[in-house]
Every structure is written in C-alpha cells, then in structure tokens.
Design brief:
The protein is mainly α. It contains 7 helices and 2 strands. The chain has 2 domains: 70 residues, Orthogonal Bundle (Multidrug-efflux Transporter Regulator, Chain: A, Domain 2); 54 residues. A two-stranded antiparallel ribbon has the order 1-2. Strand 1 and strand 2 form a beta hairpin. The longest helix is centred in the C-terminal third of the chain and has 42 residues. The protein is elongated, with a radius of gyration of 24 Å.
Length: 148
Amino acid sequence: MMLYTISEAAVKMQLTPYTLRYYDKEGLIPFVERSAGGIRLFKEKDFEWIRLIECMKTAGMPIKEIKTFIDWYMEGDSTLQLRRNMFHERKKIVEEHIELLNKTLDTLNYKCWFYDTAVAAGTTSVPKNMKQEDMPNEIRELKDKIDL
C-alpha cells in the first residue's frame, strides 16, 4: 500500500498542503492516518474523499455542511436518508445556479455580438436599429430569450 506525505498528497490532488491541513483541522478527513511522529499519511482511498470534498466545495457547500456530511457518514447507515437529502438539495441549488449562469451567458453572447457589430460599424446605432430579420438567427433567438 502506497502512503503519501501531505506534500505528495497536495501535489497529487493539485491542492496546497495548507488546504489539506485545514481540511484535517476542520474534521473533514478524520480517516487520514498519522505516523508515530504525527506526520499525516495519505492512502489512495483518502484521495476519493478529498475529491468529494472538493466537489462539495465547488457545488457551493459550506465547510460546516461538508463536516456534517462526514459526521453522518462516520455514524453509518442510520444517516443514509440525511445524506441522500443533502445531496438532492445541493443538486437542486447547483441546477438553479447553472440556469442563472446560462441566462448570464446568453446576455454576454448577445452583448458581444452587439458590440462587435457596433465596433465594425463605428456606431451603436447599427445594432440598436437593426431589424430582427437582419440579425443572425442565433442572435435573434438570444435577444428573444433574454428580452433586451
């Protein structure tokens, strides 16, 4: 079984040793072993947990909630429903965020076209006064979608 020091684990996970120490301090990786001298020793299976923690963070989950999940996991199967609910709730939040980001991207794409067209013409009056039928199809669809 391969063991990794915190520096090796950090490189492997593309994190900093500080981040891994922080996770440990916050109780997010209670399963990481220590040497007789107190040095953290990471195993391959620990990296799965760290990837999950990173996923949860990327999903916007606060450290406190991630800690709650870890605690529930450590309690065992009696917390399955709680863990399931936590992931379903977070999934819904992420889906709503993606929808908002897609609307934002639509607006940005429209504005990029608008200003590309304005710069090429030397004035904003060209895209501002352009008839819908003269706009590219994808821009017309964006304009209708974002209601500008």
